[in-house]
Amino acid sequence: MKKVSFISIKKFVVILILAIMLITPVTSQAAFSSWPFWNNDHVNTAIDNKNGDIKEYKSFLNDSKNYLQGIDTNMSIDEMKNAIVDKIMELQENYSDTSVIPYISNKILNETISSTETDPSSFLNSIISTIQSALGNTNIALNSLEPNVVVDDMVATTAGKLSGETYKVNLSGNIYYADVDNNGKPTSNKWVVLVHGFMMNGQAMADALGDMYLDQGFNILAPDLRGFGNSGGNKGKGGMGYLDSLDIWDWLTYLNEHYTCNEIIVHGVSLGGATTIFLSGLEVDGQTITDKHVTGLVEDCGYTSMTGIVEDLLNTVGNNELVAKILGIFDVTSLSDIVGRDAIKDMLINQVDVGLTEENFDELENALNSLSKSSTPLLIIHGTSDTTVPFKNSTDVYNTAMSNPNIPYVQRFEAEGEQHAFIVLGNKENVYEGHVDNFIAKTEAIMSGTEVDKESDYQEETAESPSLISGLIKALKLIKNMFSF
């Protein structure tokens, strides 16, 4: 097989950012911009400008637009795309210390790479139009759930122990109480750990899903995964699930040491869903997550293996010459022929740096191997029209869970026609919440010693259409929190 070379890890990570394991900016922004009330004065009165971020945001966009307006229109589409990718990445480096740039730069890159325009002038105008539109949408802050406690002194000790000292980064997270006593202490012993997706942070997850748990009397821990929010690590990269699961283990330890925890649900979306499955059968120093009082796992649209999600990406892009160039592969005719599993494995270990080695990669990169060792009830959620993490991943999770005799209860929500991470913008919200509520009831029945059928027979509710205003508010919160990672 021809040797594969890599120009830079950053260019590979761009592809991961653009196409996999995440709540994609394009999906969120498309849904967001489609609402007719974007410029409604009543909505704008609920938005607070973050002046420093907006200044940097506008500066980055103006620099990008000025560059695009100077591009030679005699260039071919492919030449233009490559030039734009290089320039946007260069500009992003210049603004690397700001909070709003990663979201919008990846949006521009995504639209550049995925454009099907054949006329160079039309293509260029479409990208400039995207930037011009973004310049008009600078109201990016909205009131969010206010944490009762901000933890900013956590250390990723388990990752440091199992993967090496370089992975021992500082971690940050927010805690929200369902109710408090006269001393400001939580009155509930029930907890949920909300694990966010790529390009998000803990606050975004709390805003998207927190109310349904607070209403059930659950306190919330919403950590920033490594590389995102206020946590340490390589910014914008993350750990692709395994390292993140070790960090969630540390957060579970934190909860048990600082609070009384009778029951803990771990609920992950996208990258967070994959992290939840990686966590499911984890054993550290002879303990499992049941020893940490975890009583249930909610896995929403997570992928099942690191190599699998990259292979899905390559199958999607096929022979795309631009993607081949971004990956740093030259003189090839087909990505699928050249980038085999061994090359992907090497890339993940040595370039993306997922915390695994040649010796343990094959065992630990597949989250289903962890799930096969689990004994925790599981709720699986996935949209049938997910084009980011294919729906087949949820079928693999379901089959593995059903074949594991130690898992006492498995519930599945196949969200017909829904895309990736549909709950984040409030799609089928009442159906989603109904599944979660039923799952909680089943886990609590199991805790009390009641025997339940392993396969759920839950009949879900009929979907209600959310109001445009409530959906818009949820979208605004998401966009704001994406900008702040």
Number of helices: 20
Overall spatial form = globular
* Average pLDDT figure: 80
Radius of gyration: 22 Å
What is the SS-derived class? alpha/beta
Strand content: 5-15%
Q: What keyword list fits this structure?
A:
485 residues; alpha/beta; Rossmann fold; 8-stranded mixed β-sheet; 20 helices; 8 strands; 11% strand
Structure description:
The structure is a single chain. With 485 residues, the protein is of the alpha/beta class. It has 2 domains: 9-135, no CATH class; 149-306 and 362-465, Alpha/Beta hydrolase fold, catalytic domain (Rossmann fold, 3-Layer(aba) Sandwich), CATH 3.40.50.1820. The protein has helices at 9-19, 25-33, 41-44, 51-69, 77-94, 101-114, 120-135, 157-163, 202-214, 242-258, 271-280, 306-317, 321-326, 335-338, 341-352, 361-364, 367-371, 392-403, 429-447, 468-483; strands at 149-155, 170-176, 190-195, 219-224, 263-269, 294-300, 378-383, 410-415. The chain has an 8-stranded mixed sheet with strand order 1-2-4-3-5-6-7-8, with helices on both faces. Helix 8 (157-163) packs across helix 10 (242-258) and helix 9 (202-214) packs antiparallel against helix 20.
Helix and strand layout, with pairings?
Elements: H1 9-19, H2 25-33, H3 41-44, H4 51-69, H5 77-94, H6 101-114, H7 120-135, E1 149-155, H8 157-163, E2 170-176, E3 190-195, H9 202-214, E4 219-224, H10 242-258, E5 263-269, H11 271-280, E6 294-300, H12 306-317, H13 321-326, H14 335-338, H15 341-352, H16 361-364, H17 367-371, E7 378-383, H18 392-403, E8 410-415, H19 429-447, H20 468-483
Parallel strand pairs: 3-4, 3-5, 5-6, 6-7, 7-8
Antiparallel strand pairs: 1-2, 2-4
Helix pairs in contact: 1-6, 2-20, 4-5, 4-7, 5-6, 6-7, 8-10, 9-20, 10-11, 12-15
